[in-house]
Write a structure and sequence with these properties.
The protein is built from 11 helices and 12 strands. By secondary structure, it is of the alpha+beta class. The protein folds into 2 domains: 5-166, Uridine Diphospho-n-acetylenolpyruvylglucosamine Reductase, domain 3; 170-265, 2-Layer Sandwich (Enolase-like, domain 1). The termini are far apart.
Length: 266
């Protein structure tokens, strides 16, 4: 590790000002990606701005038909929150199956979403549920927020503060994990909200998380596994790597979609 300036501002306004004042400053949430990359010198910020001291970023509440989760809420807190379990039970399951106990106790939902790892679980859940993202400057839809591999709409001096999840009629998420990393080789989230049915895929997309309109249309007519049985996934949308090829991931998506629908319908 190398030397850097560490700041722990008490308000989101002060954090945003500190972030804007240094062109290579980085926000520290849970640190589960940033700190390892710093140790490997793949990232070398001169300033770390720790959000852990900002009141209000660690709250979970229900408001106006939404489940509102602060950006600094840990995976462990999401998994064990009675508010989450009551509003969107399987979102608690998503959090419970992230990483290991050490990761779940340090990693945060906001950090994961802002990092937008193409194999992370929360992006699929947020996109399927039609979540909205409140930042230090504005509010963004999930479609506008996710913009490709490790890329979001967040500006250099913009900080994610809250995620608003519509409380769905039903929601399910299923993933096939890499046995070593436990990241998704393919994960599928299926949700039915007041806005309709949405299906989102993580872990498999060549450009990150994406929706599957054909499955959404089929499930809107009949929310059953049989409705999506014959739907094929375009392999051109999918990535290939040492862990799995596009053809294999296409098949995994079909299987995980079936499992997610079964979970949501139960």
């Amino acid at each position: 590790m190398y030397s850097f300036d560490y700041q722990r501002p008490p308000t989101i306004e002060e954090a945003a000002t500190a972030l804007a004042s240094s062109p290579d400053a980085k926000v520290l949430a849970g640190g589960q990606t940033l700190l390892p990359t710093m140790k490997q010198r793949l990232a070398r910020p001169s300033v770390l701005i720790d959000l852990g001291g900002i009141a209000g970023l660690q709250s979970i509440s229900r408001k106006d038909g939404m489940l509102v989760i602060g950006a600094m809420v840990t995976h462990h807190a999401v998994a064990n929150s009675q508010e989450v379990k009551s509003a969107i039970p399987h979102l608690a399951d998503v959090a419970e199956n992230i990483g290991d106990p050490q990761v779940r106790n340090r990693g945060t939902i906001g950090g994961s979403l802002a990092n937008n790892d193409p194999a992370a679980d929360y992006p699929a859940a947020a996109l399927a549920l039609g979540a909205t993202f409140k930042t230090s400057q504005r509010t963004l839809s999930a479609e506008d927020f996710f913009q490709g591999l490790f890329t979001t709409a967040l500006k250099e001096n913009e900080i994610l503060t809250e995620i608003h999840f519509p409380i769905p009629k039903r929601f399910g998420y299923a993933r096939f994990s890499n046995p070593a990393s436990r990241f998704a080789l393919a994960g599928v989230a299926v949700a039915e909200t007041a806005a309709g049915v949405r299906v989102a895929v993580t872990g498999a997309g060549a450009d990150g998380v994406f929706r599957v309109p054909a499955m959404e249309a089929a499930l809107s007519k009949s929310f059953a596994v049989s409705a999506i049985a014959g739907i094929a996934i375009d392999v051109k949308l999918l990535g290939s790597d040492i862990h799995a090829g596009a053809d294999y991931r296409a098949q995994l998506i079909k299987v995980m979609a079936r499992d997610a629908v079964t979970m949501a319908a139960s």
